[in-house]
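Reading a protein record of the kind used here takes only a little practice. The integers have meaning only within a learned vocabulary of local backbone shapes. With that in mind, consider the following protein and its fold in token form:
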Amino acid sequence: MRKFSVLPLAGVLLLAAAAPVAAGPNTSNTSGSGQTIQGEWYDESSYGYLVLFEESGGEYGELFEESGEWVLCTSGPNPEDELYGFVGTRVWGWASDIDMSMSSKLSSATASAEFELGIESVDECNGTYETTFDSATVAVDVVGSGSLVMFRNSGSFKVPGDFNSHSRYRGKERVATGQVDLGALGSREFGFAIMAEYSWSEHANG
């Protein structure tokens, strides 16, 4: 089973389109803040994940779920002649308007968003793929289950006489439990979830 990997927050922050603050020639200052809920669910025949970001530079949500099995399509006298294919359903979706609320110490959080969905029935053995499109209101409810963790990071990059930049990231995060309601597709219990709040600033001069 593929294990969900939470995006490193220092990399996540690069997704934000923070507006530059006026400064001297060839100099830029950017800053912003945000919050995120991320989670995954899985069992013997399915895997899914959801990520939600609400940031000063924009909002973004993504989900994916695959349920089914890999079956033997063709076989031969030798193992290398065997060909397997996936038979089942894949669901993917995206959202750009997130309504998220977190308690000050990340003891709980809720979120909702209107997702555009693609639902694909797959039979790779027969080469058939049938896709329909729909929309659904996705709702998330999580409760902190681990310790509140503070994080801080800074970095710099310099080309002598040509360019230099300095960046700082900080925030807090907590592992959580909870569920996501996918509308007509039903509810899923998170096997793993995390919530976080963060901020960043960057100065570049070149």
User: Anything to note?
Assistant: The radius of gyration is 21 Å.
